[in-house]
Amino acid sequence: MSIQLYNTLTRKKEPLRTVEPGKVKIYVCGPTVYNYIHIGNARVFVFFDVVRRYLKYRGYAVTYVQNLTDVDDKLIKASKETGRPVPEIAETYIRAFFEDMDSLGVERADVHPRATEHIPEMIEAIRTLIDKGYAYERNGDVYFRAMAKEGYGKLSHQSLEELKAGARVEVNEQKENPLDFALWKRAKPGEISWESPWGRGRPGWHIECSVMSRKYLGDTFDIHAGGTDLTFPHHENEIAQSEALTGKPFALQWMHNGYINLGNEKMSKSLGNIVLVKDLRREFSPRTIRHFLLSAHYRNPIQFTRETMEQMERGIERIDTAWTNLRHRMKASMEGAASPETTKALDELTRAFEGAMDDDFNTAGAIGVLFDAVRLANELVGRDVVSRGTLQAVADWLERYGGEILGLVEAKAEEETDEQVEALIRKRQEARRRRDFAEADAIRDQLAAMGIIVEDTPQGVRWRRKS
Fold first, then answer.
1. Do residues 410 and 359 make contact, with C-beta atoms less than 8 angstroms apart?
2. Cα 413 to Cα 384: distance, rounded to the nearest angstrom
3. Does 80 carry a binding-site annotation?
4. 29 is in an annotated binding site
5. CA 138 to CA 136: how far, in whole Å?
6. What is the average pLDDT across 108-120?
7. What is the DSSP-derived secondary structure letter of residue 435?
8. Has 91 been labeled as part of a binding site?
9. Distances (CA, A) of 330 to 176, 323, 327, 338
10. Pick the CATH number of 4-303 from 3.40.50.620, 3.40.50.2000, 3.40.190.10, 3.40.50.150
11. 164 annotated as a binding-site residue
12. pLDDT tens per residue across span 313-345
């Protein structure tokens, strides 16, 4: 079965199409770096991290670009409110963004272009659009003629009246049409700005992505993605100006993830009902947060509650316990190859995992298969006799599919041998043999304070670090 994905442009599921066979070029709209990101922002970045990993697993060469919007109205507003220069604010939150993403196991994009590093290319693109008659200048501002491009509205599938209502634009007598949008904005006193043929100013938001995606992925690339709130006007405007600029299709397929809801409302900075990633990381492990963000199909909304997060945390604990038990049992198991029964079961799990991911990257289904593998691991560990090869095969499956693709299994070849921990465990065992349970409990508490969990099993004492 080929990979199927839901294309927002066609509003149907279709086979993954690529400009070049065996290669996938992806552009995901990144953060506007004027503040810390919330978990609604993080959802798209974590999900497309998995998409990228899975495409590589499927044998594709993936080029992944994720921009950083480091100049726009929000940054300028933050600069005025704090008295800090825009570049300083941007740099602060770029560092914070990467700290959050690194903690959640999101691999860096191949390119993270910054808008401010591509101003000359944006000016040249705007100049070309003016020359082609798609854009016009008014008193230092430059606007794109939205209705001059046939098919405007094809991504959001809205009528002209709906588009005008959705644009929510203020009355601007400079515009020929209310739907026209800014390509270049004249600088106001004290604002960050660059020289241009139309005077000092800065680029509009939409032109940034068109120019940067073209530079790093070409005139036409394979997948353009972002949150569903970007469908209109951002992505709609990108299509119009990009295809006007090049005369070619912009992106073959468009993917948009759903909202995270808090209460009865979507989570957004504008509504003020946000949960920042950096704050949530203080309460829950990064893999617990990642589990939550992948727990529903990406196009569906997710309801954020503390109860849900605790459920996700218990899921990660189940995975960790199964993994640790596997590694521990392997030390005491007999030599031998993987059993045919287990090999067959793992093959079935692989088919189920691929079936879920091939069907529009259904991470919820894939996680369900991962927990089927956890149950298999637990069943094998509980057997009186099981070969090391059988246990190793299950561990390898968990590491590959649960770890390398989903990023939920923190696979270690072996628990690290720590002389201090091992010495304390021996001391505790001696205390238990003497029936000095007070000392044994005190040592367990000492280990717990070090982040070590001690478990007494039929196969002996084992220990692991808290996740």
1. no
2. 24
3. no
4. yes
5. 7
6. 98
7. T
8. no
9. 73, 11, 5, 12
10. 3.40.50.620
11. no
12. 999 999 998 998 898 888 878 889 999 999 999
